[in-house]
UniProtKB/TrEMBL annotation:
The keyword Kinase does not apply. Keywords: Repeat, Transferase. GO terms for molecular function: transferase activity. It comes from Pseudochryseolinea flava. This is Acetyltransferase. PROSITE patterns: HEXAPEP_TRANSFERASES. Belongs to the transferase hexapeptide repeat family. The active site is at residue 138. Residues 5-80 form the PglD N-terminal domain. The keyword Repeat applies. It comes from the Bacteria.
């Protein structure tokens, strides 16, 4: 019998995650939770059950947080986990490739989508998103809450800290270090380390001032 799963986030990513869950043999989406969509609304045939406060009341539930923005995701997870009855679930699409799976550590609440390729000796933190057709090279480390958008290439021995946003199509070269809460713009080619909280864009990637 399939186990019930709640997806937090009823936006585009949440709907995409539902398409993954729908092909997994062990899970069935019982509904969505969202802080901005009214209870009773139906999304892809599944009801909106409530918001973060609703999750705080549950005596037991399995949840995956489908939020792309790392900072918002971190805030939501920290609220939800106050209820120790909540279990965070890892979702991996059957067409994601973990080449040397026994050497790849994937944390709870992480989502790995179709076409993603992870090679060997990789550590992925909790509540990470690795989106469509991203590649992660040997000995890479990806910190909690980080979001890796479609088509990103992360080379070997890269270390990405917590709550980093890596935009679509970015390329991060070998041995690069990216600090907490940093942002790498779409299509950027990162040749140098990125300090915490910095935003880098372009080819080669350069830091810009946040407005």
């Amino acid at each position: 019998m399939k186990k019930s799963l709640i997806i937090f986030g009823a936006g585009g990513l949440g709907r995409e995650v539902k398409t993954i869950v729908d092909v997994l043999p062990e899970w069935n989406v019982s509904g969505f939770c969202d802080d901005h969509v009214p209870v009773g609304t139906t999304v892809m045939g599944a009801p909106i059950l409530g918001d973060t406060k609703y999750l705080e009341t549950l005596k037991a539930a399995s949840v995956v947080v489908a939020i792309g923005n790392p900072l918002i995701k971190r805030d939501i997870v920290n609220k939800i986990k106050q209820n120790t009855n909540i279990e965070f679930v890892t979702i991996i699409h059957p067409r994601a490739v973990l080449c040397d799976a026994s050497t790849i550590d994937v944390g709870r609440g992480t989502i790995i989508t179709a076409g993603s390729i992870l090679t060997t000796s990789i550590r992925v933190g909790q509540h990470v998103l690795i989106n469509l057709n991203a590649t992660v090279g040997h000995d890479a480390v990806i910190g909690d809450f980080t979001s890796v958008m479609p088509g990103v290439n992360i080379a070997g021995q890269v270390e990405i800290a917590s709550a980093v946003m890596i935009g679509s199509g970015a390329n991060i070269l070998n041995r690069i270090r990216i600090g907490d809460d940093a942002v790498v713009g779409s299509g950027a080619v990162v040749l140098e380390n990125v300090l915490p909280g910095k935003t880098v864009v372009g080819v080669p990637a350069k830091s810009i001032l946040k407005k």
